Amino acid sequence: MNRCGGLNLAEEFMNKKMRKLEKSNGNDIEDQTNLDRISNMPTDVLNTILVHLPLRDAARTSVLSSKWRYKWTSISEFVLDDKCFSSSPHCDDRWEEIMKIIRHVQSNHNGSIKKFKLAAYCYPEHSQLGEWIEFVAEKGIEELSLQDFIFIKRFKLPSQVFSCPQLSCLDLYGCIFKLPSRFEGFACLKSLQLNQVSITSETLESLVHSCSVLEKLTLLDIDHIASLRIHNQTLKYLKIDSEFADISLENSPLLDSVDIRMVPFHERIMARYLEQGRACNLLRILGGLDSVRRLILSSFFIEFLANGNITERRTFAFNHLSYLELKEVRFCCFKEVFVTVSMLRSSPNLEELYLSVSGSYDLSKPVLDYLKSQYLFEFSFNRLKEVRIRGIYGTRTEWEFIKLILARSPVLETLVIVKFEGDRIPESLLFQTERASEDVKIVTLAL
């Protein structure tokens, strides 16, 4: 029997015994004999079984016998989420329920704590939460995750967190993040997520740069940070959904997947960045992403990339890009259409294109002339197999873009077009246009 199958059987047996003993008050001799066999298993095996149970079920093992009363408090992983509550107490009462668990663990735990995750909708008392974080930090924590609780104000992250040599995953929510003066980096940290965290641009840059094995970085709703500077030699995955005014992704040569949604910063600060007259943001920000394979760009960030001195010259290439998703492109805006087409032209190995459209009611003659220009038909999307365009309004500029895709994609297999209002575009009309691929399947829908 493999280890995974044996573990599942042990969990099932444990749950059956707990249910039976809870009903019989532990008087069944055969059950007690079987439980003694389980009790005599190696500690690491018992820990593995209990860790794979929801924490509420692991705590229920305390009724099995006196030997089991506090076994659950010494497991190496604690996940405090909605499954910990037998009913649905009001969020005001949940923290007290959580503190009961925490107090039991603090009083009886022996050994290390490798993982702690708080993902229950509650009002944490900041001093108590801080004391618990200090406790797990001293227990050799490897994965620390604080997610989506309710807060009145940001709480200060205990400094002990920065002295955890084995920390490999750090997921923080609603805290104030300040680095100690002697901080030398997280030597083992591979995944970092900051959500609604207060941190300065300089602190974030220093933190990311000092994590020598960091592979995954997620930044969500960061407090009032104007400029994001992400420089890391090992970073592979980057997701940003936050307010900012500028970004730099230099010296991140291994970035493989990038997902950026930009929320505009304060108007005056934003205007200062937009009016600096520097080189085109498209080249400055994305020009160095030589290794990226998956790229998702949303809403205002596309407009931001179009700012600056745009040029027809192809001065960068996404040679490894196979998946491109652009959200809320405005086909009435010349610069946004130019950026969209430039990215397509610069991606010789692109296979999948997903495009959503926003605010394309108005006809733009510059966009129309650009999409109809002859030089755009001098190159092909030689590996493009699947294209999905969502939310079009049926304008001439959108139609010219669709014609360009059909005419210059020789291996295209699927084209899906979803119209925002009114009737869908007749498929017969699309089949009457020039198509480089005779085998393309065209599907048109309407919202």
Description:
The protein has 447 residues and is an alpha/beta fold. Among the domains are: 1-56, no CATH class; 277-447, no CATH class. The protein is built from 14 helices and 18 strands. The chain has helices at 3-24, 29-39, 43-51, 55-60, 91-108, 126-137, 201-210, 267-274, 281-286, 300-306, 334-345, 365-372, 396-407, 427-431, and strands at 77-81, 115-119, 143-146, 155-156, 169-173, 175-176, 191-195, 216-220, 227-229, 237-244, 246-248, 257-264, 294-299, 323-329, 352-357, 386-392, 414-419, 441-446. The longest helix has 22 residues, at 3-24. The chain starts with a helix and ends with a strand. The model is unreliable at 1-7 (pLDDT under 50).
What attributes characterize this protein structure?
18 strands, alpha/beta, two-stranded parallel ribbon, 447 residues, 14-stranded parallel beta sheet
> Which band does the percent of strand residues land in?
15-25%
Largest sheet: 14 strands, parallel
Question: Can you count the beta strands?
Answer: 18
What is the first-to-last residue Cα distance?
52 Å
Task: Specify the number of helices.
Answer: 14
Reading side by side through the largest sheet, how are the strands ordered? 1-2-3-5-7-8-10-12-13-14-15-16-17-18
Q: How many whole angstroms does the radius of gyration measure?
A: 28 Å
- Derived structural class: alpha/beta
Query: What general form does the structure show?
Result: elongated
Helical content band: 25-40%
pLDDT averaged over residues: 83
Provide the low-confidence segments as ranges: 1-7
Question: In short, what is this structure?
Answer:
With 447 residues, the chain is of the alpha/beta class. The chain has helices at 3-24, 29-39, 43-51, 55-60, 91-108, 126-137, 201-210, 267-274, 281-286, 300-306, 334-345, 365-372, 396-407, 427-431; strands at 77-81, 115-119, 143-146, 155-156, 169-173, 175-176, 191-195, 216-220, 227-229, 237-244, 246-248, 257-264, 294-299, 323-329, 352-357, 386-392, 414-419, 441-446.
